[in-house]
Amino acid sequence: MNDLTLNITDLKSKIEKIVKLHQELKKENEQLVADKENLQKTIDEQKNTIAVLEKNNKEIEETKSIEQDKIVTDTKLKINELVQEIDNCIALLK
Fold first, then answer.
1. CA–CA separation, 42 vs 59, rounded Å?
2. Strand, helix or coil for residue 45
């Protein structure tokens, strides 16, 4: 009978230990899930930031291209005006 009591007591302590470990693991799992959600939120925010920055970069490149085209066009017009002025001067000299 004494052996049975010892076995029951031993079994009871092992069950309590398992229950305690289960609770600790459950808390740890909940913390890991919360950490995962926070990291996912950070990833989503970073993806949004990247998308905004890529859009801004594209707009800047387009604006830069338009400005360069305008500079080239303005320079060509100025050269044409100078050539016409030179032609007029040559015509006056003749």
1. 26
2. helix
